[in-house]
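Our preliminary data section would be incomplete without showing what the modeling component actually yields. Below, a chain of 462 amino acids is followed by its predicted structure, encoded as tokens that our downstream tools consume directly.
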Amino acid sequence: MTFVLLAGLAILALSAVLMRVRYGPSWFLLPFGMLVIAALVYHGLSVVVIRITDADLFSVSRPSREWADLGALLSAIALLVLTTGYFMGNRRRSGPPALDASVVARILDWRVLLLALVPLFLATVAGEGYASGRALGAEDAFLTGVAYQLYVPVAVLAGVAFIARRPSTVLPTVGATALLMALAGQRLEIILGVAAILAVVSRLGIRLPTRRLVLAGIAAIMLVFAIGGVRAADERGLFQSDSGVGVRLGALWDGLTNPAIEVGPQGTGSLLGEAALRLDANDWAGNVAIAMSSNPEGTGIRPVLGAMMGQVPSALYSGKLDVPIENRDPETAAIVYLSVPQIDYLPGHVAYLMGSFPFPWFLLFMLAIGAALGWLDSRAAHSAGGLGILGYVVLAVSALFFERGIVGYASAARTFLLLAPLILIMSARGMHRRDSAGGKPPIPGVSLGLDVSLDRVRSTTL
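Predicted structure:
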């Protein structure tokens, strides 16, 4: 490993250490803490495994190791600046506090959430919902757009609500959530859904034996490999068609027991190396660094604004799909305007906007984004109300959706606005039931879903 790469890895680790020092042992339960952990995987662990297995020598699409190492260093610096901005926005000195399971169960009605999830699931297994392959925003893709926004967060909220009501069902609920993601044919969502639910479970004070956690992790990884086996045989065709639940379950079983993944001359020679290449986000940063060396001005702010405007509902901005994609997607803009090689990149939150501005301006932009994320975390992660719980889950899901890029947080705002009325209705019903029983909310405003601080509640200790 070169000095440049080692310096990048050290700066990545520094961001995590600073988060631990400032917010204590439960720092990783903050949504931004989850983003930092994801960055450690995508920008750090992946490149270490790649170098150990020499997986990059089998890929012709990657930049040279020198440029990839520079990409890793630039990404690490960007994460450190993003973390610094986060400290400016979140001035608290602790991780998220504990939640009262009885309060959460009263706010979130798992039956209502499950009812909301059913049509999203049915549309998905019919090839018209989540990950259907249809262009988001197209006239015939309404269900796809709704499922894209709601499928994962509603599944997580339903799981959290059920566990809050029945704490002994953590593992079955986590398993069911993972299976819902697997039936959609998505690997990242399996890990993401499990991680988001377990984060809330930790805040509820539910402790699981290590053996059970290991079993849950093994089951999730098996589903990930099962999807890999199905995709290797049929790519995404089965998951983007009206195949139904039975066919998808059978395909997942076949993918697990008879994987079609080729490990040899066509690949890296190692499943571990293949996985590391799939998760590596430094090749994008390296190729952008090559392009910016001859065009240091970048693509400008227009694609960034276009990406933000793309999150506006079609009813309010019907012409958003008429805008050329290179003017509403920073990744495509870098490919078109900076001549970055056109391959299947994974920029991630940290490097997504790296080709948009000269590097000093890019860092200033990341500082501002970090401050905004810190402000949001300080409200959502320390609220006991329904909207606070919703905000926490949406921010956690967005942070763990590292592959969507930092602009994906704009999509999170849409998700929050779509689900907020439902959460408020459930909160009001929960308060009414308690009042009918002659009780009072333990903290004023909690049942209404208002932003109520939980500083008086003990912090989660892990």
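Residues 3-94+282-379 form one domain. The radius of gyration is 22 Å. Preliminary results of this kind motivate Aim 1 of the renewal.
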